[in-house]
Amino acid sequence: RGRGARVLLVEPDPFRRSVAAGIGIDAVDPGATDVPALVDERTAGAGADVAFEVSGSAAGVTTAVDVLTTRGRLVMVAIHPQPRPVNLHRFFWRELELLGARLYQREDMVEAVRLVASGAIPARQLISRVVPADAVTAAFTALEEGGGVMKVLLDWQEESR
Fold first, then answer.
1. CA–CA separation, 24 and 42 (whole Å)
2. Overall average pLDDT of the 24-43 stretch
3. β-strand pairing of 97-100 with 8-10
4. What is the DSSP string of the chain?
5. Is the CB of residue 160 less than 8 Å from the CB of residue 147?
6. Where in the chain is the domain with CATH 3.40.50.720?
7. Cβ count within 10 A of residue 48
8. Residue 2 to residue 32: CA distance in whole angstroms
9. Which residues contact residue 132 at a Cβ distance below 8 angstroms, ignoring those fewer than 6 apart?
């Protein structure tokens, strides 16, 4: 958004949608919304320039591919635990680009710190819990289960009591 993008978050969890709305990000439930039709409507049929797939789900991949414009870019951020089917005909027909995003450059981290420090990213509103590092299993379980959790930070200076 800071660079002029219109952002749409596709999120099944109602709590996460409410957090997004609270920071001014439009969020929709993929179970209740035809996301490709919505993107088509909002872009006058052009489609999205970029889609970030962060869910790790087959449905997330399908939706991300379906919303992209001609020569659009799919950025694969999620770790998929197994191979996923992908509509290669659409990749060919729309001349889509796939970019994997597993590693980051030093400049990426510098920019992330700058964005948080400047308040451009409202980190406090995104952090649901801070837990000691030895509670990492519980933190990941909370994230997987959803329902009231957006981000969980690990505190490496404190131990569970």
1. 17
2. 97
3. unpaired
4. -TTS---EEE-S-HHHHHHHHHTT-EEE-TTTS-HHHHHHHHTTT--EEEEEE-S-SHHHHHHHHHHEEEEEEEEE-S--SS-----HHHHHHHT-EEEE-----HHHHHHHHHHHHHTSS-HHHHEEEEEEGGGHHHHHHHHHH-SS-SEEEEETT----
5. no
6. 8-100
7. 23
8. 28
9. 154, 155, 158, 159, 160
Q: What is the mean pLDDT of the chain?
A: 92
According to CATH, the topology of domain 8-100 is Rossmann fold (3.40.50)
pTM value > 0.90 = no
Q: How many CB atoms lie within 10 A of CB 52?
A: 19
44 dihedral zone (left: phi>0; alpha: psi -120 to 50; beta): left
Longest Cα–Cα distance of the chain, Å, equals 57
- Angle value at C-alpha 39, between 88 and 11, nearest 5 degrees: 90
Q: Tens of pLDDT along 75-93?
A: 999 999 999 999 999 999 9
